[in-house]
Amino acid sequence: MSHAYSTCFLLSSITAPPANPTFTLIADSGASAHFVTVSAPILNKIATTHPLAIQTPNGTLMHSTHEATLNIPGLPESATKAHIVPALSTHSLLSLGTLCDAGCLISFDKERVLVHYQEELILSGARCPTTGLWQMELPAPLPQSALTTIGDPKLPELLKFYHASLGSPSLRTLEAALSKGLLPHFPGLTASNLPQHPPASIAMHKGHMKALRQGIRSTKTPATTTNVDAVNDTDLFFPLQEGTVATRHHCYASFFQPTGQIYTDQTGKVFNPSLNGNQYIMVLYDYDRMLLYHSYEGEKVLQPIAPSRYGL
């Protein structure tokens, strides 16, 4: 084919009577991917940049228009990726090969089909008595956010919006977070899509510049000016002094009545004694003189301690 489509072969022929396309899927071992109808219960719907060309057994081609995620809790991302094919008007196809590639164990019997992942039952279905095909029903999809229901953004535009809403992080940081599964609620934002459509953000480059700010270690001598006009020479509290620079500090005297109030604190015994053998610390604060005094004791003092003991 001349156009850049990926070709995917659909080997199963569906002749079942119309069923409910919103919930029911046909378990298909010949489908190479999940192919769903337009009305299927899917999540994270985005327009595809690489449409698939699907060849049916009669030789006709069907093309996918969107990529989406099936609402199957408990499965990895690779097992839930689906392609919307408008030509599928009645039934959606669940690729058993895709589930097996993701590590699922699928078992059939005469009436049922079971899908286990890491020893946990994920899906189950029954065999249709009319067609003999095994059918599965998906759980009801979660409510979609307004972002995924308003408009139909292209994948590059969607990734650019996500990148800006996350604060324009570096692409290496964002890719590492996606690889660890830390951003599961951003439809279309995956570790495989990010390198294909990297957002070109000016805020990202400016926010991660390593240049130093100018002027933080200036070698220029600051100019000194006198503050003659700012001070009144008749001011008794701030008399003018010739040849002085601008006033930066003010000193004043204050008088108050001494209270003799002190505060003390005696700590408990420390685990390891000091080099001088001290194991206790006495802390005293003189309120009037704003003096903080401390002393060290070698043995615990049982009698009352007077300030005169420390020369106060």
Task: Walk me through what this model shows.
The chain is an alpha+beta fold. Helix content is 14%, strand content 26%. It has helices spanning 77-80, 96-101, 146-149, 155-165, 171-179, 193-196, 202-207; strands at 6-9, 24-28, 34-36, 42-47, 52-55, 61-63, 66-70, 81-84, 92-95, 104-108, 112-117, 120-127, 134-137, 262-266, 280-286, 291-297. The strands form 4 sheets. It has a 6-stranded mixed sheet. The protein has a 4-stranded mixed sheet with strand order 3-8-7-4. A 3-stranded mixed sheet has the order 1-5-6, with no helix packed on it. Strand 11 (112-117) and strand 12 (120-127) form a beta hairpin. The longest helix has 11 residues, at 155-165. The relative contact order is 0.10.
Helical coverage, percent range: 10-25%
Question: What is the C-alpha radius of gyration, as a whole number of Å?
Answer: 39 Å
Which sequence of strands runs across the widest sheet?
Answer: 9-2-13-12-11-10
Low-confidence stretches: 1-22
Mean pLDDT figure: 75
**Terminal Cα separation, in Å?**
100 Å
As a percent range, the share of strand residues is 25-35%
State the major sheet.
Answer: 6 strands, mixed
State the total count of DSSP E strands: 16
Overall geometry comes to elongated
User: What string gives the helices and strands in order?
Assistant: EEEEEEEHEEHEEEEHHHHHEEE
